[in-house]
């Protein structure tokens, strides 16, 4: 390896993107989830992070002409059993895919160190082109926060170790993203912001609101330095009065750009139905 | 030498008229002797001044002779200091051969006066935000290492891409007409964003072209945004060993590409924050890299821009925000600029510089790239001036308090989110 080999010609074509399976969400994201970098989805539970990432596992298999990567994907999960039934349900809205479940690889994660070990081992998997399934172009980690939240104590030594591990994992992911042209999606949780004056502003808005709570992304400032794009999903219950003056609640969900090198600060409403996740025109 | 420079600056103010006589003399004598067709459009002065010169009818150097410095200031609606500046640049341009002769009396030595002249004639790379340019003394300066740090999403990468584009602005438009080296350690450089910024830059140049009317008809703008990408040498590095290797290789690379005028590393930090068991090794590696970059900046007269992250530091029982890589690194760069949020506005703060005073300025990140803040009408501008003055006073009053800058005032205490 010579340093001159690291010089790359910049092609005027935008970087390859992976569709989310919905034209409105794709337009919002400038084409989809970008390859060669890490995209983070931040949300409280029940906002649809897993839903969006499951749909991504399917849409990544679409041919490039339809905005997909015509590729398999790897789903690394730490929380709960793998949501197989939901994935199956969503796959019904991708009728063109032939046996989509065959092209999704899954692997459970036990700890942050385990994640790093797994990442170090998959190089050969990413490199080799087994004939049984297309090459892997999408890695989803669900969720990074769960791995870190219980393993480390809240003292200076552990925090330092923890942030060192953040950068190690992120560096490995970015290297693989770059080498193999992968789209990497990591899912993160939120923490409540108790004292406003305490919180550090990261990204487009002073505070993030979801379910009338003020939150910020988990794992703090160090981890925020490790991702290229941060997207925030929120949900809010709204009271709506119907014709009979009965009030009902309706859940509205939004996806918003917190920071991204290629996207302006903006947001987009989306809906989760039984069949799929899709964006709403403004 | 810097102290000497600032001393000379003070002295200079006291002798405006005397200097003016010298410049006028130099323009007169050198002008006859050398190229009489020399146009003011080739003078290394800011684009706006050049435009003012041309629109006021000073198209040739000889026409500069016919006006006194106060005439010039009045015609161009600029300060006498600026008028003096133009005359000095003109005389320095003409007298470059002469000054080489005098300074070689002691081999390799330069008089402080020559250094001052050289420094002020050096090109600067505009940030496309006039307020930010103002506090930087005209833009990012060549021959120096400038570190720019801030929280994720504040616009570090945006500024990096903007500089990689702006360095290519042709001389006729007040730019350096150089090329850029972009060393990407984080993978945040997006071609589509670079194209957007290049397109906006071209539009601005076209507008400027229209402003100058027919004077610059010769240099037609037939560039496309894609052409800007051709002049960005993009290195993607995935580990700290690669980063060091590329920095070591730069000397050879730039000697083959002499028109490189800026080296941007986005970010210097990323690969050095993984757990380094040997922190002394990290300090040595970083120090060595900083030294090499500083040498490059001097040797090839180019600007080095290092983007840095912020981190929390445990000081006296609370976590406070500081630029990453530790205390020894903070000495490595000539200039240090911190980007921070103040309410909903983005601000830049000169944290450290040997030649320019601490100040802060508002900027914004738009679809077209880095620009002045939207609130550009005069009243708001004045308000923000007042705010900056307040910020300055804060910084002055609380100098004894270690970390009290306007930046810290924005985030007094930071809690770790666990």
Would you kindly provide a brief summary of this structure?
Chain A has 282 residues and is of the alpha/beta class.
Question: How many strands appear in the DSSP assignment of chain A?
Answer: 15
Shape summary of chain A = globular
Largest beta sheet of chain B: what is the strand line-up? 5-4-6-7-3-10-11-12-13
Please report the distance between the alpha carbons of the first and last residues of chain B.
48 Å
Total helices of chain A: the number is: 8
CATH fold title of chain A: Rossmann fold
Protein name (chain B): DNA repair protein RAD51 homolog 3
Organism (chain B): Nicotiana attenuata (Coyote tobacco)
Domain RecA family profile (chain B): 121-310
GO molecular function, one term (chain B): four-way junction DNA binding
Key traits:
heterodimer, A: 282 residues, alpha/beta, Rossmann fold, nine-stranded mixed beta sheet, three-stranded antiparallel beta sheet, 8 helices, B: 418 residues, DNA polymerase, domain 1, 2 domains, two-stranded antiparallel sheet, disordered C terminus, DNA_recomb/repair_RecA-like (chain A)
């Amino acid at each position: 390896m010579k340093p001159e080999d690291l010089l790359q010609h910049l092609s005027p074509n935008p970087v390859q993107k992976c569709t989310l399976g919905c034209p409105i969400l794709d337009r919002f994201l400038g084409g989809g989830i970008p390859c060669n970098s890490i995209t983070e989805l931040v949300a409280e539970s029940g906002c649809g992070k897993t839903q969006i990432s499951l749909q991504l596992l399917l849409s990544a298999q679409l041919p490039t002409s339809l905005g997909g990567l015509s590729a398999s994907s790897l789903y690394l999960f730490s929380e709960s059993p793998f949501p197989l039934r939901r994935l199956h349900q969503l796959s019904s809205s991708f009728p063109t895919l032939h046996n989509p479940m065959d092209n999704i690889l899954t692997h459970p994660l036990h700890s942050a160190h385990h994640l790093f070990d797994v990442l170090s081992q998959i190089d050969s998997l990413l490199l080799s082109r087994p004939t049984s399934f297309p090459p892997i172009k999408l890695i989803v980690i669900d969720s990074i926060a769960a791995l870190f939240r219980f393993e480390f104590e809240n003292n200076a030594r552990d925090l330092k170790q923890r942030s060192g591990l953040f950068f190690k994992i992120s560096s490995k992911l970015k290297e693989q993203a770059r080498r193999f042209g992968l789209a990497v999606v990591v899912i993160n949780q939120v923490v409540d912001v108790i004292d406003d004056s305490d919180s550090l502003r990261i990204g487009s808005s002073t505070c993030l609101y979801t379910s009338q709570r003020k939150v910020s992304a988990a794992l703090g400032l160090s981890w925020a330095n490790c991702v290229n794009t941060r997207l925030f999903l929120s949900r809010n219950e709204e009271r709506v009065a119907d014709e009979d003056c009965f009030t009902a609640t309706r859940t509205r969900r939004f996806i918003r750009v917190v920071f991204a090198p290629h996207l302006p600060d903006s947001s987009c409403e989306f809906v989760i139905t039984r069949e799929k996740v899709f964006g709403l025109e403004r | 030498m810097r102290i000497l420079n600032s001393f000379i600056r003070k002295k200079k103010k006291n002798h405006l008229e005397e200097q003016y006589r010298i410049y006028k003399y130099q323009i007169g004598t050198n002008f006859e002797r050398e190229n009489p067709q020399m146009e003011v459009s080739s003078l290394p002065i800011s684009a706006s001044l050049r435009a003012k010169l041309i629109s006021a009818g000073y198209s040739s150097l000889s026409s500069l002779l016919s006006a006194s410095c106060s005439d010039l200031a009045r015609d161009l609606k600029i300060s006498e200091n600026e008028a003096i500046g133009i005359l000095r640049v003109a005389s320095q341009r003409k007298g470059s051969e002469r000054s080489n002769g005098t300074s070689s009396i002691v081999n390799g030595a330069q008089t402080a006066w020559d250094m001052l002249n050289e420094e002020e004639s050096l090109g600067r790379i505009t940030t496309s935000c006039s307020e930010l340019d103002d506090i930087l003394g005209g833009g990012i300066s060549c021959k120096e290492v400038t570190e720019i740090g801030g929280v994720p999403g504040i616009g570090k990468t945006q500024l990096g891409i903007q500089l990689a584009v702006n360095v290519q602005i042709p001389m006729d438009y007040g730019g350096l007409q150089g090329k850029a080296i972009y060393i990407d350690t984080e993978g945040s450089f997006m071609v589509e964003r670079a194209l957007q910024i290049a397109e906006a830059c071209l539009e601005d140049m076209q507008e400027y072209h229209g402003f100058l009317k027919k004077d610059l008809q010769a240099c037609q703008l037939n560039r496309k945004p894609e052409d800007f990408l051709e002049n960005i040498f993009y290195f993607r590095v995935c580990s700290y060993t690669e980063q060091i290797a590329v920095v070591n290789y730069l000397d050879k690379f730039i000697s083959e590409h002499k028109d490189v005028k800026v080296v941007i590393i986005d970010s210097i930090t990323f690969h050095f924050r993984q757990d380094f068991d040997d922190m002394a090794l990290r300090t040595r590696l970083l120090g060595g890299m900083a030294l090499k970059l500083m040498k490059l900046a001097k040797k090839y007269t180019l600007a080095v821009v290092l983007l840095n992250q912020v981190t929390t530091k445990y000081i006296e029982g609370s976590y406070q925000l500081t630029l990453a890589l530790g205390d020894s690194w903070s000495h490595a760069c000539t200039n240090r600029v911190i980007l921070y949020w103040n309410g909903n506005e983005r601000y830049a703060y000169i944290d450290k510089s040997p030649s320019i005073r601490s100040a802060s300025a508002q900027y914004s990140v738009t679809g077209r790239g880095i620009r002045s803040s939207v609130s550009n009408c005069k009243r708001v501008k004045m308000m923000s001036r007042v705010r900056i003055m307040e910020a300055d006073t804060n910084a002055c009053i609380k100098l004894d308090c270690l970390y009290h800058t306007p930046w810290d005032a924005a985030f007094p205490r930071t809690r770790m989110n666990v």
